[in-house]
């Protein structure tokens, strides 16, 4: 398994992001879908990684800088056909490592409240994330779960 910074030009990555957005719109009302499309993932301040097993794309994730001390996890996804291989945990651990290198104090995320998001909730809790209130420009919403992780100072 290899994790690499991705320039978002490969068709496999486009297909995975399309799968991600389609699934988010299946599970949440349109006004509550905060997943980023391809153009928004290319914005300054966002680093996007893809996870590969040989030539197979098995996951992705992104880190958005909210401030010099806080980041937000975005676009964590494993293709439905490639789940249970450890790609989600691997990219999450990679994002945590980068956040520590950047000396962030806090890492936050927004995910859905639909029962289909429970495996993601468990994954985030397993590395220390806890539920919190909205952060950044988010507002309280029954379709969202907000989580945060305080990162220790080196």
TrEMBL record:
CDD domains of this UniProt entry? NAT_SF
Taxonomic lineage per UniProt? Bacteria, Pseudomonadati, Pseudomonadota, Betaproteobacteria, Burkholderiales
Q: Say if the entry is tagged with keyword Lipid metabolism.
A: no
Report any Pfam family annotated for this entry: Acetyltransf_1
Against PANTHER family, the record matches this protein to:
AMINOALKYLPHOSPHONATE N-ACETYLTRANSFERASE-RELATED-RELATED, BLL8307 PROTEIN
Q: Name one GO molecular function term.
A: acyltransferase activity, transferring groups other than amino-acyl groups
Record the organism: Caenimonas aquaedulcis
Keyword Acyltransferase belongs to the record? yes
Task: Give every N-acetyltransferase domain span.
Answer: 3-152
Alphabetical UniProt keywords: Acyltransferase, Transferase
* Protein name (record): GNAT family N-acetyltransferase
Say which domain of life the source belongs to.
Bacteria
């Amino acid at each position: 398994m290899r994790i690499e910074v991705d320039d978002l030009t490969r068709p496999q990555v486009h297909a995975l992001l399309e799968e991600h957005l389609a699934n988010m719109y299946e599970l949440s009302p349109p006004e509550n879908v905060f997943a980023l499309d391809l153009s928004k993932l290319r914005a300054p301040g966002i680093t996007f990684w893809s996870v590969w097993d040989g030539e197979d794309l098995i996951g992705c994730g992104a880190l958005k800088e909210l401030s010099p001390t806080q980041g937000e996890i975005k676009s964590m996804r494993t293709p439905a056909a490639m789940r249970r291989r450890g790609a989600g945990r691997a990219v999450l651990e990679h994002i945590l490592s980068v956040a520590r290198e950047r000396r962030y104090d806090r890492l936050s995320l927004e995910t859905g409240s639909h029962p289909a998001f429970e495996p993601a909730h468990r994954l985030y809790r397993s590395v220390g994330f806890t539920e919190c209130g909205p952060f950044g420009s988010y507002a309280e919403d029954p379709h969202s779960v907000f989580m945060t992780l305080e990162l220790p100072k080196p």
